Amino acid sequence: MRKSHPLRRAVLAGAATVSGIVLLLSMKPASDPGGAQAAGGQVPPAAAGQAPQGGVNGAVTGDAQQTEYGPVQVRLTMSGGKITQAEAVQAPKGGRSDQITASSVPRLNQAAVAAGNAQIDAVSGATYTSAGYKKSLQSALDKAPAGGGGASQGSGQGSGAGSAQAKTVTGTAAQTQYGPVQVRITVAGGKITKAEAVQAPKGGRSDQITSSSVPRLNQAAVAAGNAQIDAVSGATYTSAGYKQSLQSALDQAGG
C-alpha cells in the first residue's frame, strides 16, 4: 500500500492541473466588442462609419428626404473644405425605380462633387429622386463642420468672422395658383452666392415646369444679386412667387 501512494498522488496532481486549465479557459470571454478600441486598436467598422463632428475633413450624412417613390439620403466626404465624394446611402428602389436610381444617382453624385454645393441640375426622367437628393445634399452641407463647404461654410449665426461672413436666410413662402414657392439664399460680402427653391409647385405638369424653371431662376438670382430678375417663359406663376420670396429673403439678409 505504501509503495502505490506516491503514484496515486501524482495522478491526483495531474488531474487537478487539467481541471485548473479547463476552468481558466472557460472563464475567458468569447468576444469583447470594445476590446480593440480599449486596447488602442482599430475601431469596429460600424463605429468607424460615423460622421466626425469636428474639423474640416470627414464624412457627414444629410437628413433622409421622403419622395413619392421612397427616401433619398446623401452622404458627403469633405476634405480641405471641399466635397471630395458624394453618395446616396438611400434611394428609391423596386420596379422601375431601380433603373431610374441606377441611371440618375451616379450623375447626381458627380454633379455634387463638381459643383461643391447643392445647386445642381435635376436629372431628366428622375425629377423626384433629383429633388430629394438636392435637399439631402443641402442638409449634409448644413451639417458639415466649419469650413466644410456649401451653405454651411460660415452659415452666419454670429461667429463674427467679418464682413465676408456668409449668412443663409430663407424667404417667406409665396403662395401661387399652383402651390407655394419659397427661396433660400446664402449672402456673403453683400452678394448672393447661392440661391435655391426649398418649395416649388409639384405634381402633374408642375413637376416639369419646376424642374425646368427653378435652376434658371436660381442662376439669375445669383447673377443679378437682387430680385430684379426676368420671369422664365412658360413659368409665370412660379417666377412671380420666386421673385417675391427672393425679395423677402433679401429683406431679412439686410440687402
Key features?
7 helices, alpha+beta, single chain, 255 residues, 4-stranded antiparallel β-sheet
Describe the structure.
Strands 1, 2, 3 and 4 form a four-stranded antiparallel beta sheet that branches. Strands 5, 6, 7 and 8 form a four-stranded antiparallel beta sheet that branches. It is elongated and about 105 Å long. It has helices spanning 5-27, 35-38, 45-48, 96-115, 127-143, 205-224, 236-253, and strands at 58-61, 65-67, 70-79, 82-90, 167-170, 174-176, 179-188, 191-199. 42% of the residues lie in helices and 20% in strands. Helix 4 (96-115) crosses helix 5 (127-143) and helix 6 crosses helix 7 (236-253). It contains seven helices and eight strands, in the order H-H-H-E-E-E-E-H-H-E-E-E-E-H-H. With 255 residues, it is α+β, with helices and mostly antiparallel strands.
